[in-house]
Amino acid sequence: MKYLLDTNVVSELRSRRGAAQVRAWVDAQSALDLAISVVTLIEIETGILRLARRDPAQAKLLDSWFTDRLLPAFADRTLPIDLAVARRVAVLHVPDPAPKHDALIAGTALANDLIVVTRNTADIQRTGVEVLDPWRQ
Fold first, then answer.
1. Class of the 3-136 domain?
2. 78-79: strand order across its sheet
């Protein structure tokens, strides 16, 4: 694996109106080079559960995509929050606390020597992790 896809990239790939350059960048990579974090799964499932409160039909569609497509596609490329990640995240919180999800994504990338693929470059770059913005490719 070379790249850790941030939640905004995964969400963009799901959208029919998603940025063509993001899709093109992902399509140009080997699937084996792409990973996601359990943090992305948390963020997406939380979004689906929140959506279900106001638009159950749309939430059901997204849940089907999540369960039937995303989870199987990344079944062997979903990285956990393990001891190595936890220790990297702890370092990122000193001296100044970092946003929790960003720190977990960055810590996962650091522990696994991955480049974070994201639109949220500013928050991730300040952790020292290498980032790639496919919207600017």
1. alpha beta
2. 78-79, 34-37, 3-5, 115-117, 131-132
Verdict on whether the full-model pTM lies above 0.90: yes
Half-sphere exposure of 85 (CA within 13 A, CB side): 19
Q: Provide the pairing of β-strand 34-37 with 78-79.
A: parallel
Query: Within a 13 Å sphere around the CA of 68, how many CA atoms are in the beta-carbon half?
Result: 7
Q: Where are the domains of the chain?
A: 3-136
Residue 37: closest CA among 91, 13, 1: 1
- Around Cβ 20, how many Cβ atoms within 10 Å? 8
Residue among 79, 80, 100 at smallest CA distance from 34: 79
Q: How far is CA 123 from the centre of its chain?
A: 14
| Tens-place pLDDT, residues 58-72 | 999 999 999 999 999
pLDDT in tens, 99-114: 899 999 999 999 999 9
Identify the CA nearest to 36 among candidates 45, 28, 136. Answer: 45
Which residues neighbour 48 within 8 Å (Cβ) at sequence distance 6 or greater?
59, 62, 63, 66
